[in-house]
Amino acid sequence: MTNLCTKVTVRKRPIKNGQLSLYLDFYPAIRNPRTGKLSRREYLGIYIYAHPKEKFEVQYNKSMLQNAELIRCQRIQSIINQDFGFIDHTKGRESFIEYFREAMNESTNYRNWENAFKHFCNYAKGECCFDDITVEFCQGFLTHMLKLKTPSGGTMKASTANNNFGKLIAVIRRACI
Question: Over the stretch 90-131, which tens digit does the pLDDT of each residue have?
């Protein structure tokens, strides 16, 4: 759980060509959801003029600073959501399947995770975003696995289904960190 008092500030750093690079500064540092490491900065890839000389440069700077401020507000909302255990809905339409794949690739027990990932992809028909993850959807995944036929003609054992379901829950928890 991150600190509720985390402050997010838009800062500028000088770069080549008389421009400034905009980035977000987090204090205290927050955990990067992809790498799991603590991070103080997030570079936005937004550049403005250091010394605007013409009217359009001033207008451009103003517009880009507004965009950076909107991103800052989204990050604050994400931090608050994660502090209270809510799924970060600012991720919205991002692929949950890709997020699951990253978790699988980072695991030490790759083969076990790979089986859970394959079953989840089959259940989700290859497409699933963060907005699709609901309690009913997850319960449906467990029901789906319990009905699957094994090569020997039986159904999947409850312990195997529970193991695969546990991997899904682990990925969802990781998304909330």
Answer: 566 778 888 888 888 888 888 889 989 999 999 999 888 877
Final residue in a domain of this structure, among 34, 51, 83: 83
Q: How far is CA 150 from CA 123, 144, 157, 161, 169, in A?
A: 16, 13, 9, 12, 23
Residues 28 and 63 in one domain: yes
Q: Are residues 31 and 78 in the same domain?
A: yes
Model pTM? Answer: 0.52
- What's at 8, amino acid-wise? V
Total domains in the chain come to 2
Task: Give the domain range for residue 142.
Answer: 96-176
Q: Whole-angstrom Cα distance, residue 53 to residue 57?
A: 7
- Distances in whole angstroms, Cα of residue 149 to Cα of each of 57, 89, 101, 158: 64, 35, 24, 12
Contact 118, 148 (CB under 8 A): no
